[in-house]
């Protein structure tokens, strides 16, 4: 179904067409008419389904249909979202969709001076996209009047609750106009999300575009079994040999992310890192360089990567599997967006097999395993046998000392350095 069938104003249709959108995605087909009718919405939709446009476009249309009766300084739409990156991304999208309208959009999140944001709020803003904690600070400092908000969106509600924002969200909701139209988007529906939806929404229209906890069909998923200590070497080899050009890699910790980036750069693969300890400016620069194709790899931790929207991202690599199986679904949602194809690769060590089993249970399918020659995972039995042989050999040689240390030393040897040609001529479609 095309956007024209929903009689959007010409300024919105023009912007949509300039974004290159032709047909509506399923969540847009269902959410747009409901929101335009004034219904509350409860949508089960994961990132990458086009959910931002699904709420932003009808909100913009309704702002045209019914211009504000109050002063311009009153905010009409409030969107709460878990991370700064996601807030920026949503604001960028809304700016794109409203570029032929007179609408101001402001992002509010931590890590930026409160006072600077307060001044911008005072000047008047139509749409606020915010993370809950910082927004609450402004509410408590009386910088913000939300009593005229007509539209309120909770985006990635499950993430916000996972990140411990529940009480902040509730306090924000108390400050918002009770008669506003409300929308809640979430990829998963835990009991706490259901409770929030119950408290927050009034007879919502239920929308579900993907079964809960399933992965998009457009993403092909594969597992490479490998020893933990050889993951770095394998990832360099895969990127180099297969000439992957835009790869998002997830690591379990900030330390691991920093180390990996260093190693990849040494291997000749231009890489950047985003994690919670990096300053906001650094994170933005890393993301920009990645989007522009100046670096081939972006290494990220779970939290930092939330909300990253990189168009046409083909490869997501789980260098370490996530602690929670649900996070696997979120991670690989970074690829295969809006119907495009993507590949999700998981490097799985022996110790991670159990987590992998949890993931497979959650997504309801077994993932194909590909063993790369030279990277076979030795079985524990083989390792023990190997140790025993060495020990008896050492005994014979009257060199009983340090045998196990030798073996362990061999296992801990740094991986080979993999020299990779820099594919600086990689053509990567620039994201908006
Ligand atoms: P979202 O789920 O909102 O993060 O959107 C995922 C990606 O899909 C973004 O890059 C959007 O720009 C893009 N997108 C949204 N709607 C459409 C559409 N109807 N056609 C093509 N791309 C879209």
From TrEMBL:
GO cellular component, one term: cytosol
Keywords: ATP-binding, Cytoplasm, Helicase, Hydrolase, Nucleotide-binding
Protein name, per record: DEAD-box ATP-dependent RNA helicase RhpA
EC class: hydrolase
GO terms for MF: ATP binding; hydrolase activity; nucleic acid binding; RNA helicase activity
Pfam families assigned to the protein according to its UniProt record, in alphabetical order: DEAD, Helicase_C
Region feature Disordered, mapped onto this chain: 410-432
Gene3D superfamilies, per database record: P-loop containing nucleotide triphosphate hydrolases
UniProt entry tagged with the keyword Cytoplasm: yes
Ranges for domain Helicase ATP-binding: 32-207
Motif stretch (Q motif): 1-29
Sequence ranges assigned to domain Helicase C-terminal in this UniProt record: 218-383
EC number of this enzyme: 3.6.4.13
PANTHER family associated with the record: ATP-DEPENDENT RNA HELICASE RHLE, ATP-DEPENDENT RNA HELICASE RHLE-RELATED
Assigned protein family: Belongs to the DEAD box helicase family.
Keyword ATP-binding: yes
Domain (DEAD-box RNA helicase Q) ranges: 1-29
SUPFAM superfamilies: P-loop containing nucleoside triphosphate hydrolases
Reactions catalysed, as given in the entry: ATP + H2O = ADP + phosphate + H(+)
Organism: Shewanella woodyi (strain ATCC 51908 / MS32)
SMART domains documented for this protein: DEXDc, HELICc
Gene Ontology terms describing biological process: response to temperature stimulus; ribosome assembly
């Amino acid at each position: 179904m095309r956007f024209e069938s929903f009689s959007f104003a010409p300024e919105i249709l023009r912007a949509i067409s300039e974004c290159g959108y032709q047909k509506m995605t399923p969540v847009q087909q269902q959410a747009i008419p409901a929101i335009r009718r004034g219904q509350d919405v409860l949508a089960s939709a994961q990132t990458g389904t086009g959910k931002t446009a699904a709420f932003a476009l009808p909100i913009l249309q309704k702002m045209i249909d019914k211009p504000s009766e109050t002063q311009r300084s009153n905010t009409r739409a409030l969107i709460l979202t878990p991370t700064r990156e996601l807030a920026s991304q949503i604001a960028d999208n809304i700016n794109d969709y409203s570029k032929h309208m007179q609408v101001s959009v402001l992002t509010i999140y931590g890590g930026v001076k409160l006072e600077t944001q307060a001044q911008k709020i005072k000047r008047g803003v139509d749409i606020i996209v915010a993370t809950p904690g910082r927004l609450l600070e402004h509410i408590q400092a009386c910088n913000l009047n939300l009593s005229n908000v007509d539209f309120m969106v909770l985006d990635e509600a499950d993430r916000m609750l996972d990140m411990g924002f529940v009480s902040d969200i509730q306090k924000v909701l108390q400050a918002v106009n009770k008669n506003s139209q409300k929308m809640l988007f979430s990829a998963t529906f835990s009991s706490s999300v259901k409770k929030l939806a119950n408290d927050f929404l009034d007879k919502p229209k239920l929308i579900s575009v993907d079964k809960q906890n399933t992965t998009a069909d457009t993403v092909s998923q594969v597992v490479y079994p490998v020893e933990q200590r050889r993951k770095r070497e394998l990832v360099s080899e895969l990127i180099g040999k297969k000439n992957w050009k835009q790869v998002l890699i997830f690591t379990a910790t900030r330390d691991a992310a920093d180390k990996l980036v260093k190693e990849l750069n040494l291997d000749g693969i231009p890489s950047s890192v985003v994690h919670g300890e990096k300053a906001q400016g650094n994170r933005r620069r890393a993301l920009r360089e990645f989007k522009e194709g100046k670096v081939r790899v972006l290494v990220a931790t779970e939290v930092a990567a939330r909300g990253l929207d990189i168009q046409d991202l083909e490869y997501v690599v789980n260098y370490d599997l996530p602690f929670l199986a649900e996070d696997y679904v979120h991670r690989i949602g970074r690829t295969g967006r809006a119907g495009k194809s993507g590949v999700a690769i998981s490097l799985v060590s022996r110790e991670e097999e159990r987590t992998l089993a949890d993931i497979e249970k959650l997504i309801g399918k077994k993932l194909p395993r590909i063993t790369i020659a030279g990277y076979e995972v030795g079985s524990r039995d083989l390792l023990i046998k190997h140790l025993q042989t060495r020990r008896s050999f050492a005994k014979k040689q009257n060199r009983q000392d340090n045998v196990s240390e030798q073996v362990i030393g061999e296992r801990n040897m740094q991986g080979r350095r993999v020299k990779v040609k820099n594919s600086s001529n990689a053509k990567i479609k620039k994201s908006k």
